[in-house]
Design a protein that fits this description.
The chain has 274 residues and is mainly α. The chain is 72% helix and 0% strand. The chain contains 14 helices and no strands. Helix 3 packs antiparallel against helix 4. The chain is globular, with a radius of gyration of 25 Å.
Length: 274
């Protein structure tokens, strides 16, 4: 049994028109696609966090926030006369039908790999022959955060054959970049150090890609792990009547290792029992 999604979307659409219309909300009326960019990125990552936590109640809320922002930006463009909410929805619907001939047509594909191969082929046909001087990297948006952009640049280059044969040589490249970074540290040249750190990070992204790991998602998970463990260190220090600054690095490191050990053993820790 399906919910009445069209009616629910229509209600959201009409609320947004009211908020952005005469007598609407002063804050909403001041917004633009540019002012909502960071909110779009934030809501996407909050959805990712809810998925990682298997928190469906939170995911429902975060997806609602994302629907709001996507519809709001689309309506802003409709107000400008650039395109309409309906045209954006029709365009993605047409694209989905066009790129799934194995579902909406007579083509038959039986593996995800063949589906992806067909998708890329149809996508290339839609774009036609590249214009003279066009680069395989032209479609990578400069507005992407650096980590995500390096990942996309590498993927685009790999599609035209500029890629490592596998993860093994990338390990060697990372070791090479570490040596060059250590050498740069001895020069007192801050710009060179920055450049070598960038090369090292780019190589690590390459390794993640070849291991079929999304580096942004991996880092997102590590950020969450660090935050969870550090908050527990703070909590344990507070229970001992001290602060991180008073405790010092050695004591905090000991507690950090205890927290890691508790996690590995599946122990909820004292905080979870309260």
């Amino acid at each position: 049994m399906f919910s009445d999604a069209p009616a629910s979307f229509e209600r959201l659409y009409e609320i947004i028109r009211r908020l952005r219309g005469p007598g609407g909300c002063p804050w909403d009326l001041e917004q633009s696609p540019e002012t909502l960019r960071s909110s779009l990125v934030e809501e996407v990552w909050e959805c990712v966090s809810a998925i990682d936590s298997h928190d469906d109640a939170n995911l429902e809320e975060e997806l609602g926030d994302l629907y709001l922002l996507v519809t709001m930006v689309s309506w802003m463009k409709e107000q400008e006369g650039a395109f309409t909410v309906a045209s954006a929805l029709e365009a993605i619907s047409d694209k989905l039908v066009r790129r799934h001939p194995h579902v909406f047509g007579s083509v038959r594909l039986d593996t995800p790999a063949r589906v992806l191969e067909q998708w890329d082929q149809i996508k290339a046909e839609e774009r036609g022959e590249p214009s003279p001087g066009a680069s395989a990297l032209d479609k990578v948006q400069k507005s992407l955060p650096p980590l995500e952009r390096s990942f996309e640049l590498q993927k685009k280059a790999a599609k035209v054959g500029f890629d490592w044969p596998g993860p093994s040589p990338v390990w060697e490249k990372i070791e090479e970049e570490l040596v060059e970074l250590r050498e740069a540290l001895g020069t007192a040249d801050a710009r060179r150090v920055e450049d070598e750190v960038g090369d090292l990070l780019f190589s690590v992204v390459n390794l993640a890609r070849l291991l079929k790991v999304d580096p942004a998602l991996a880092l997102h998970g590590t950020n969450g792990k660090f935050e969870r463990r550090f908050r527990e260190v703070e909590r344990r220090l507070a229970a001992q009547g001290t602060s991180p600054k008073e405790a010092g690095l050695a004591r905090m490191d000991d507690l950090w290792n205890q927290v890691k050990a508790d996690e590995a053993a599946g122990s909820p820790g004292p905080s979870a029992a309260k």
